[in-house]
Amino acid sequence: MSHTFDDLVAEADAVSVEGWDFSWLDGRATEQRPSWGYQRVMSERLADPGVSAALDIQTGGGEVLAGAVRFPPTMAATESWPPNLVKATRLLHPRGVVVVADPDEPPLPFADEAFDLVTSRHPATVWWTEIARVLRPGGSYVAQHVGPASVFELVEFFLGPQPEEVRRGRHPDDESADARAAGLEIVDLRSERLRTEFHDIGAVVYFLRKVIWMVPGFTVEAYRDKLRELHERIEAEGPFVAHSSRSLIEARKPAA
Fold this sequence. Notes:
- The chain is α/β, with parallel strands linked by helices and 256 residues long.
- It is built from 9 helices and 8 strands.
- It has helices spanning 5-14, 38-46, 82-92, 128-134, 152-159, 164-167, 172-181, 201-210, 224-237, and strands at 29-31, 53-56, 74-79, 98-101, 115-121, 135-146, 185-198, 240-252.
């Protein structure tokens, strides 16, 4: 692996960031995983014989959904970004999953009460009224959300201190209130903060190119000076440490 600043940055700036697979970061960054194991939870719920139809919202490249052992007879997924749509279609169609292009804005392109289960991992937006609309009575939304101030040590290194309303965004208490306002009952809610380490500046560049809402408008050229500063810090002090924020939420539509 190249170790100079210019080589590390150039390598990370050139690699594809399509899909939602972070394997390029193996050996270069680490993230502690939530104790509940979302993919296992999702897989168990999808395999429940009481679930005949399910929807995965904002499926990305389909990598997380593809980890499920079994799907219900009707399985659909939505995605908005064209490169991810292509990847998800190639990955999921052979297993009978219908991947639907959707702009991540209301309405969802499905009929009322179409699904027993709706899932999502790290949705960028959550439209609770639409989730409630497409769930059948007694159906559930089971998801892992990014929580408040996630990886903000890195965000604030580049953008400076953020106002409290920004730091509080995606707070599970607020999301729970929104879910209840849409007519859903909160069945389970768990939150954890998890240690994340970036071992070289290339990992930082790749992460910020892929998770585009962290530092909006990020480009290597726009932030080269800050990148060099962070590179020198990592070289002198070791990995840059941040903390991701994750919530597991289950919301149920009351039975008729």
